[in-house]
Write a structure and sequence with these properties.
0% strand; 116 residues; mainly alpha; 58% helix
């Protein structure tokens, strides 16, 4: 869709539900990697021997992929479709390199269940 005034593409920013789903997925992914015996050092070949947490998933996995893929530094600037594309990239890489089956991206129904 184009802006009538400036003729530029209008990009829908991520919704608050997508943001909630993103952070829920960070939690789920950190649990899956920890249960699989993968720590930060084994996954990223770094010097850190740390268990995964939602914050580390966001900062050490999601943000670097987001920066490389979209050249942006904040999740608030993601479009509604960017989140799915970045999820697919991370899912593919962790699956191929570590044999992990990642949790699916949380659905609206799951988010609604957790708010009860």
């Amino acid at each position: 869709m184009k802006c009538k005034a400036c003729n530029q593409d209008i990009i829908k920013k991520r919704t608050s539900r997508q943001n909630s789903a993103l952070h829920l997925w960070f939690s789920q992914l950190s649990e899956v990697m920890t249960e699989a015996g993968l720590d930060v050092r084994t996954t990223l070949k770094s010097d850190f021997d740390l268990p995964w947490s939602p914050e580390l998933v966001k900062e050490l996995l999601y943000r670097p992929v987001m920066k490389a893929y979209k050249k942006i530094t904040s999740t608030t600037k993601l479009s509604t479709t960017d989140i799915d594309k970045i999820f697919d990239i991370i899912n593919r890489e962790l699956g191929e390199k570590h044999g992990l089956e990642l949790p699916p991206f949380p659905s609206i129904e799951l988010l609604m269940e957790q708010k009860l």
